[in-house]
Backbone:
């Protein structure tokens, strides 16, 4: 997975900000077709082959921001202005969430192990001895890999004393836990939407930005601009994403024009209560392990790939679903907007009638910057009495859900954590039917570290953790990250 | 004579923070100890750079010894501090 704020992520945020600024200034339709040129000026030192390709990619990025499915809706003759007016007048169709930009795909070579010039052609030849498929040949005194025989096990890489063997992965394919991303016959990226679980790992790992999520940010901006009543439901991971306290973040969101801001931790409390009850009943009836159900990518994973676990999942609804129910009672007419770190939530929300739309923290940041709202300077919102659900803010961190469940039951609950899902974990889950895990409760989070590392977050999880612990933002880096003492 | 410390202020206004300023706050992790001991680094409220509309100068902003610099990356921050030490 790529470092959080890489150059592509920053460029994406810049493009989104420019689009939103123009939208709020009322000049979007007029300006949008020249935005790629404004953002990528002629004298820029390009990160792609040339500025023209970069501009083309900006155009695609804008289309995804407007909510279009680039795989289906790409019409090169159509000006962006037409896309804008279409986006503003049509009902958004958010599925599938992920879409690919074939021209942005670098067509990376197939995954391979390669022996570099550092090979000394040594006498011991551990690569030869350890290769299970006899795929190492010595030519002119140097090791070579015989492609047809190589099974990519990586043994030669492990044993070479000169580190002469390198592994070249295809980042998107490697990051997908279920093999839904692959290269098509032309060698470019393709997502199999029927098997995709919307975890967003591929979008997070492509260094060329060829996989993007479709956004509903413009839809939301339009809703706010028209002054429709909207309520923001903020995911527990939000604390630590911005340079200010939770109360300041809430104030900032209100300043965007939301009628109210509600913490999804409130709904998480209901989820945790349900799960605590369920797990206690299962232990009493000796029914074996139960898994959590709050991670929507995991829910998709079970539905599409590990159906044997269907009955093992907790029957509790997600914190988002419970929070939506509560908000609907309090504000019957408001449009409910979920703000979170997750792309799979966009898919889950389509099934929940109450929810109008879902945006990510990155998209929220763009809204704040476009409106010139500074979280650091804003005076804090009054925090509601959170005594009941304060511990559920930790739903965002690996082990946080399990802890919340444990606290709500009087039985001892044995817990197992699945912290991040990859191909290996999926293989493990498939064995659970025959060899169940030795635990009462299995907490599953598809992103390593929890929602704090989701594809829609803004901040390096290490910084987010420190801000969540109450470190003042200006001093958040005042001690090396490895240092265990709390800053 | 005690060496003069270089004053480095990293903007943590929202615009800078989300455009990569947050990563600059990890300076303890990426700056060499020899540079760290020569400066006093702190986060600061909005330096005002983002209010000036100019395609070339973008967030994040960092002030080094009173001069505000735009588009500061990890590498650029290191370079700016080195320049300030040499000056």
Residues:
């Amino acid at each position: 997975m790529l470092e959080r704020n890489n150059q592509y992520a920053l460029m994406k945020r810049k493009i989104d900000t420019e689009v939103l600024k123009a939208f709020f200034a009322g000049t979007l339709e007029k300006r949008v077709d020249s935005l790629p040129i404004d953002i990528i000026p002629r004298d820029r030192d390009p990160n792609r082959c040339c500025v023209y390709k970069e501009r083309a990619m900006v155009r695609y990025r804008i289309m995804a921001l407007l909510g279009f499915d680039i795989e289906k809706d790409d019409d090169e003759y159509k000006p962006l202005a037409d896309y804008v007016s279409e986006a503003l007048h049509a009902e958004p169709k958010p599925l599938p969430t992920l879409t690919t930009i074939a021209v942005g795909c670098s067509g990376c070579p197939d995954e391979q192990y390669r022996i570099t010039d550092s090979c000394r052609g040594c006498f011991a030849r551990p690569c030869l001895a350890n290769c299970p498929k006899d795929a190492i040949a010595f030519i002119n005194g140097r090791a070579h890999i015989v492609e047809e025989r190589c099974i990519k096990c990586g043994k030669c890489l492990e044993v070479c004393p000169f580190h002469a063997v390198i592994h070249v992965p295809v980042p998107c394919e490697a990051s997908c836990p279920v093999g839904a991303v692959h290269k098509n016959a032309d060698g470019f990226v393709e997502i199999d939407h029927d098997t995709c679980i919307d975890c967003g790992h591929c979008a997070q790992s492509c260094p060329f930005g060829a996989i993007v999520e479709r956004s509903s940010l413009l839809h939301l901006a339009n809703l706010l601009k028209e002054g429709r009543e909207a309520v923001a439901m903020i995911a527990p991971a939000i604390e630590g994403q911005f340079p200010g306290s939770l109360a300041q973040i809430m104030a900032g969101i209100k300043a965007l024009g939301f009628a109210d801001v509600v913490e999804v931790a409130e709904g998480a409390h209901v989820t945790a209560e349900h799960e605590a009850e369920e797990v206690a009943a299962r232990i009493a009836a000796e029914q074996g392990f139960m898994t959590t159900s709050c991670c929507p990518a995991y829910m998709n994973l079970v539905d599409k790939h590990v159906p044997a676990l269907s009955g093992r999942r907790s029957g509790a609804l997600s914190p988002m679903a419970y929070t939506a129910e509560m908000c609907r009672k309090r504000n019957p007419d408001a449009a409910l907007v979920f703000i979170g770190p997750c792309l799979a939530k966009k898919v889950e929300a389509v099934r929940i009638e109450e929810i109008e739309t879902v945006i990510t923290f990155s998209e929220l940041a763009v809204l704040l910057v476009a409106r010139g709202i500074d979280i650091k300077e804003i005076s804090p919102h009054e925090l509601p009495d959170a005594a009941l659900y304060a511990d559920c803010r930790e739903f965002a961190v690996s082990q946080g859900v399990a802890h919340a469940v444990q606290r709500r039951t009087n039985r001892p609950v044995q817990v197992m954590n699945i912290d991040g899902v990859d191909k290996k974990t999926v293989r493990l889950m498939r064995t659970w039917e025959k060899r169940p895990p030795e635990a009462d409760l299995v907490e599953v989070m598809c992103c390593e570290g929890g929602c704090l590392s989701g594809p829609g977050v803004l901040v390096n999880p290490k910084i987010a953790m420190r801000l969540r612990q109450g470190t003042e933002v200006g001093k958040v880096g005042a001690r090396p990250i490895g240092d265990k003492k709390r800053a | 004579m005690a060496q003069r410390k270089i004053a480095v202020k990293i903007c943590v206004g929202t615009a800078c923070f989300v455009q990569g300023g947050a990563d600059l706050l990890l300076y303890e992790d990426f700056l060499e100890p020899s540079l760290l001991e020569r400066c006093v680094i702190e986060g600061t409220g909005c330096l005002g750079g983002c209010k000036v509309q100019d395609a070339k100068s973008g967030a994040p902003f960092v002030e080094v010894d009173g001069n505000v610099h735009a588009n500061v990356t990890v590498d650029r921050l290191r370079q700016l501090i080195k320049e300030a030490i040499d000056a």
In short: Chain B has one domain: 6-86. Helices of chain B lie at 14-24, 27-30, 33-36, 74-86.
